[in-house]
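Deliverable D5.2: sample structural annotation.
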Amino acid sequence: MQQLLSGEYDCKLDPKGRLVLPAKVKSALPDTFANQLVLVRGFEPCLVLYPRAAWNLIHAKVTALDEFNEEYRQFQRNFLRGMTEVELDSIGRFGLPGSMRRYAGLDKDAVIVGLGNRCEVWDPTRYDDYLIKDQQAFSKLAQKFLSDTPETPALPGLAV
């Protein structure tokens, strides 16, 4: 069973634009392709880091879209643009290409956030800008997405 990528980690980029993947994140990577990751631009101004196995599932969906449909081609072009395969070195570092660092506004500091099947890499200030500050609004989102409704059936072990 694959462990979930989780947690929030403050990190520093070295002068060569490399990040060390936090040990807890590295230990949660699946054994197959453990050192092979895929880095893509996020939908927000961040980078998304996928373990190879998780990326393969997404990549298969994206590349299966009809290439003769203009909207699909536009999505593929933008989604796959800049996709970079990265490999962890012996101490768990991986390089961030300059174009990717610029896209995410990464300079010296970064926040790595585990989100289950992937991690996001953020500039700390931008990350804070995208967090929900209003706890009541956050509570309403939790109710919307996690309550037992026909659209969101009860979670195993949480049924009352």
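Annotation notes: The CA atoms of residues 17 and 98 lie 8 Å apart. The mean pLDDT is 90.
The annotation will be released with the project's public dataset once the embargo ends.
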